[in-house]
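Worked example

This section walks through a single chain of length 910. The input is the sequence exactly as stored; nothing has been trimmed or padded.
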Amino acid sequence: MTAAPERTAFQLIAEERRHRPAVVRLARSLCLAAQAEPYFLRSARLRFAPDSSAGLEARLYFSPLVEAADSRALVLYPEVSAELRRELYDHDLDLLGSVRDFTLAAHRSAPPLVRGFEELLWSATTGPPPAEAEVERTLAPLFRQVLAEGVAAAEASRWILRFLPRLPAAVRDSLPAWRLQLMAAERLGMEPPRALLTRATADEVRTVRALVHTEVDIGVRASAQGLVLSRPPERDALVCGASGAGRVQLRLRGALPGTQWHELDLYDGEYTALGVSVAAEVRADGTLLAAQAELGGTLLCARAGHRAAAATTADGRTALRVDDGESVLCVDLPEQPRLLAVADAGPAATAVVSAKGLHVVTSAVDGTADAVLHPLSEQPSAVGWSRTRERGVLCLATGNDVLLVDDGDPGRTLGTLSHPAPVTHLWASVRAGLVAVADAHGGVTVHDLAAGPATGPGRRQQAPGGGVTALCGDPWSGAVVWGCADGRVYGVAAAGAAALLGTLPAPASSLALAGDAGLVVAADGGDRLLRLAWPAGGAVTAVPMPFRVREVHPATGGLLLVSGHGGEVEIRAEDGRTHLLTPGPVPAPPEGAGPGWLRDSVGVVLPEDVAGLPAGIRRRGVGHVCLPAALPPDSAEFAALLAGARDQGLRVLVELAPPGEDTPHGELLGRARDLLEASVDGLRLGGTARWPASLLVRLRHLLDAYPQAAVVTTGTSDFALGAGHLTLHAPPEPTTALNGSHDSWSLPDGLPHPQACLLLALPGCREVPASVLAPAGRAAATPAPLLAARAAQLALRHGAVQRPPTGSARVTAVRRDHAGQAVLCLTSTADAPVTARVPLPEAAAGTELIQIADDLPDHPRDAPPPVLRPDPDGLVTVELGAGRTRWFRIRAAAHPPPHGATDPFAPSAS
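Given that input, the structure is written out below as tokens.
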């Protein structure tokens, strides 16, 4: 027992009976009750101890028989209650019957779960263990309460987890009680007791937990570094469907080869920002071989020759992994490092600089890692390993100097390399015995420590181009390469002069000299690698990368180690639904572009007879709604729609009808002001051609006072209404307007279904009619699923447009590409099923087309999406039903399949 584990319930009762027998008598009257409220306790004392005073109640409250007591109720220890019931059953059945009658009468108005609990106590006390069918019948009201949603379900779940373990073993160990406890824990978002989990297989546990799962909306918003997840979805976030109850269990991973799943539990009211840090081994042509993606963590990598080091910081812990090609050393660091360097030859050594000082990691005699922390009086700006004629040295850049320190005792300075300006970049090599230093004046100095005095002046190169942004070298040839702020890249051989290799489109953030491949490879923070021929230089070529690359390091065998952030993320819900999301980049908005949400939001114009918002509207990719002009702003219907839209995180526009001949302009302007003051997000002006120019001028002056208000107009308008003004034109002609600039347009109501689907594959759609979200029946084709897919794919919102051939005049293909993401949209206008064959220029072994949407709403949400693969001739064959549409993501072989054989929710083998 919790209070006195050294005493059994029998001993505890016997001791209390010797000292305070009246307390035990009163406690017996409570042994068939779930809990004793003050009125229950008072009535029990008056009936079973009529000669006692109210002080007996107080003595019971503070006795060791009581597990918990407050102003609302008193609860006996379950072991004490069970022992008291056994005593009465063995020695005084009449009194047991009286206690039963009293309990029934006192709790006749108690909640059903209390009465059901007490019914099980009685049946387990007076007869044989109840059959499971009887237990299930008695617990049926509790099952119904837990399966319901809202506050009542949560209260019932808490009560079940508190009181069900107090029932006799024959009841609490029954299958219905086991299921009920699992369901209650899941309803509250709690991990059930381990004893419940070990009783059945993982699949059986998951099946029971899923009984209380409902559809839950999760908001996902792309940030510069990763994703932001919210529950409920925050405004302007993409809404993804998932299943869950008190918590939603998600699994996330970077969509790259070799990446691992990360677990995330999202509770109601939570907001989680996850950075996506990536490190990958690639070939010089950009082919990914293996990757590590940390969601919510950071990666810092270094590579030199056959040695590599990676520091991973996640969940408040930093782990350093050092690979010298033959063995792997693992070390826990006290905090996230700032600088990292490995020695490219000689004894394996790694230098890590953090706010706490310098960590030097070497191999101990027994093969384990030996990590020593050395305090630093000044934080270095760069660190590296090199050697003099006599010994290896650790290079620390501080101010204008590079200190050459003892690698075993960094407090001992062996020499100093001085420079005319503060040191900004450092490259050092043990194999070559070189140290290359870039200073703040744009100069690069190469020190040959192995050939001359360790403190010699070195060879300084000064080339035009501004400050140095990146510096690297080749330990085999002694060549040094650096990049300047204007994009120019220079190289210098072992004893030559600096030569211009080429000019990059943006300054390099990192450089790697891959001598084996004859290339200088640059990273500039974008989703690409830039390449220059080495040593001749020349034109810059670019290879795309599936994430934004910040650093690049040369590796053996012509390979590269690249690191950065972002890239596509796969989110898997517990019911099997998969979402593939790319966190940026998106084109920068023009200066003074008005409210940012208006750039990507698709709106729905609600009809005049609207009775409420369409169900699941945000899940369909809709970001704002427009309330009809016929709805008075002071009406209850208007207030209900506005509140409902706010609750769902929708932006709200209100339509203003053009003024009639007798409508005072001041009245219309007053309504516009009242709407903007009511915190709507903007106005929609219908029939702009019928608005007098003088009224538009006055409206423009009014809108100047609301710079974040959006104004949407339809048709042609030569009058600008501020930075937030968006004009919606007629939709483009799908067969001719596939390239060039794309105006914003509104999808008309009543279009033939194939034409509406084809238009949604084009850029510029900003508004759809409400009928799009309301198909005529379950089997009716609808563009609604396409809207949701359009919101989730950057390529469909910002990508370039191509129209590849399909081999059929009745099938139109639209391809959209953006930031390494490619989507293929196929629409048939045929009256019968048709087959299309579409060329894929990038088709290779492992290339897949994963269906992300079609125009039928009845695809099972937990079923894997259909996957197509190109034929050997580079064409992909797609079957389309009559008048049907299918959209696909094109994924290269470098990505893992979205529905792999491994279940990320299955428990680990350990």
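What to look for: Residues 1-5, 897-901 have pLDDT under 50 and may be disordered.
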